[in-house]
Specification:
- By secondary structure, this protein is α+β, with helices and mostly antiparallel strands.
- It has one domain: Alpha-Beta Plaits (2-Layer Sandwich), CATH 3.30.70.20.
- The chain binds iron/sulfur cluster (SF4).
- The site of iron/sulfur cluster has 16 residues, from helix 1 and strand 2.
């Protein structure tokens, strides 16, 4: 089971997350991202959004096959590289 959260206090509304995973993220009218629906989310797209978030506001948790909780963050996903902006 996937759990995706956005820290709305640090989100700057760049829209990178909605670019990478439009089925999961949307920038709301208040200029801050929201999570739409994660039931059909592609974990690859979600992780691209995590890596591409300039403020590291997205956190993802999933349960592995044995039911253990696994956290994903931009720090872990990006390694030594900086978050990347979407390429057009
Ligand atoms: S990529 Fe990050 S900062 Fe940009 S809208 Fe999404 S959550 Fe907010």
């Amino acid at each position: 089971m996937l759990d995706v959260q956005i820290d709305r206090t640090s989100c700057m509304g760049s829209g990178n997350c909605a670019f990478w995973a439009p089925e999961v993220f949307e920038v709301a009218d208040d200029g801050v991202a929201v999570v739409l629906d994660i039931r059909n989310a592609s974990i690859e797209n979600v992780m691209r959004a995590v890596e591409g978030c300039p403020t590291q506001s997205i956190s993802v948790r999933s349960d592995d096959d044995e039911g253990h909780s696994v956290s994903h963050s931009a720090d872990a996903a990006a390694g030594d590289s900086s978050p990347q902006a979407p390429k057009s």
